[in-house]
Amino acid sequence: MKAKNIYYLGLLLCSFLANLHSISAEVGKLVCFYDSKSFVREGPAQMSLSELEPALNFCNFLVYGYAGIDNQTFRINSLDPTLTHDRQHYSHITALRKKFPHVRFLLSVGGDHDLNSEGVADSEKYLRLLELPEHRRNFKESVVAELNRFGFDGLDLAWQFPKNKPKVQQGVLKRVWGSFRGLFSSSSVDEKAQEHREQFALLLGELQSDLRRAGQLLTVSMLPHVSAELFIDIPTVLSRVDFVNLGTYDFQTPERNPKIADLPTPLYEMYDREPSHNVQYQVQYWLNQTSGISAHKLHVGVTSYGRSWNMTRNSGITGYPPIPAANGAAPGGRQTTTPGLLSWPEICELLQQQPQDRETPHLRKVGDPTKRFGIYAYRAADDQGENGIWVGYEDPTTAAIKAGFVQAQGLGGVSFHDLSLDDFRGQCAGEKFPILRSIKFKL
Question: Whole-number mean pLDDT of the chain?
Fold first, then answer.
């Protein structure tokens, strides 16, 4: 009898350990996005595969961005034939599995990188694909062939739905009325939003059966300013994917509002701002749709860059956001050369820059002792109205705070955008991938 009790006790212990392992496998994940364009950038912003490798010690998943969709056949295609001639770069990436067997490699489609002839993210094509069974079938068949040919472990859909229209800063009463009125104005974004919502869930179901049969993953990445309320049947979508990466960043950018600079990724709601423009609101919206039971499938998006505006003489001298009378996107950094965007090493250089190094002084950093909203740095415009800049950004400390938020909420992990914009050479403080490391150590 005693031996039997010991036997059952052993079974219970094994079951407990197995469940514990299962639970631990569901949380604390780090999904790393890799923009393949960084491989062909010119100058110091170019990141080679050897420079990418140290990051894979910290990542559970590497999401390769981005593939696109053919406008005629609706099959998956390469967005940069010069980079992926015969898709060689795909093979080079997935071959890293030999060195990093713990990493699963996913191919992402869309991501606002699939542009139309006017250089704008093509959402119309992505909606047309959803509408007809033959279009969905062509896409599914090409996806399965592509993943199997190049050894990817799964597919990430960063679907290019139409984005919400920018909202200007306004008073509380106007915001409340605007939110109420917005409930009845989905047609301004997409007249067939309800149909596309159902068709996207159907596409996921069609992909799910084939990919899971092959042991491959299916994930979704929500892009910033895409309305989950309009386009995502959350309970159904979460039941058909392995996880969802939330686009909890870029709430404010120079492209969406060139005249007012503001913190791009606050953790919690800020006074007299659009109430949905913060991480906590976005996470809570998804949790509310499933009573929190799928929290382990949600990943919070954290960035490795900042958004920057030009300050004018009329923007004031305190730097306290929101900054009025901004004059559009600030010039791009010396490495990435993208107006309105500065990578972490570019920001770090501007913070450390001294007057004797250049004609203009360094930026003044303003921290966030509340740990609720984020940090920024600025340099007021000079007497000639020039050299003014304001940037809201992520650094290792704020990224760790958001990783702590993920833990406290019982979420699955963090999706990190993008490895190529972190300090992958360690030029700022001598440590490579400092933001990535801070997230991983917190998780």
Answer: 89
